[in-house]
Design a protein that fits this description.
Elements: H1 4-27, H2 32-38, H3 43-49, H4 56-66, H5 68-88
Helix pairs in contact: 1-4, 1-5
Family: Belongs to the FAM210 family.
GO cellular component, one term: mitochondrion
Organism: Hipposideros armiger (Great Himalayan leaf-nosed bat)
């Protein structure tokens, strides 16, 4: 509850940026299947997500979904620091004292 709005907003922002980056990469002609295999993704998972003949957006979205654990980790790790910073500069009120 303490980090909810910031967490959701940050995660949506990271997701939109991620999807945009993957769309740019896929539309520029980079072979993402080879890159994903080098990163350690299983071949069956890559082939099911990046099927031949699909549109650029569908491929970019599939790759975006493969990187969901990375986006979630970034969100969970950074939200407390962001909230602490916003409280320090006076943008957020300090947490309410617990009775």
């Amino acid at each position: 509850q303490e980090y909810g709005a910031v967490g959701v907003s940050l995660h949506i922002g990271i997701s939109l940026v991620s999807l945009g980056i993957f769309y740019m990469v896929v539309s520029s002609g980079v072979d993402m299947s080879a890159i994903l295999l080098k990163l350690g993704f299983q071949e069956s998972l890559v082939q099911s997500k990046v099927a031949a003949g699909t549109s650029t957006f569908v491929v970019a979205y599939a790759i975006h979904k493969l990187f969901a654990p990375v986006r979630i980790s970034i969100t969970l790790a950074s939200v407390p620091f962001i909230v602490r910073y916003f409280r320090k500069v006076g943008f957020f009120k300090p947490p309410a004292a617990k009775p």
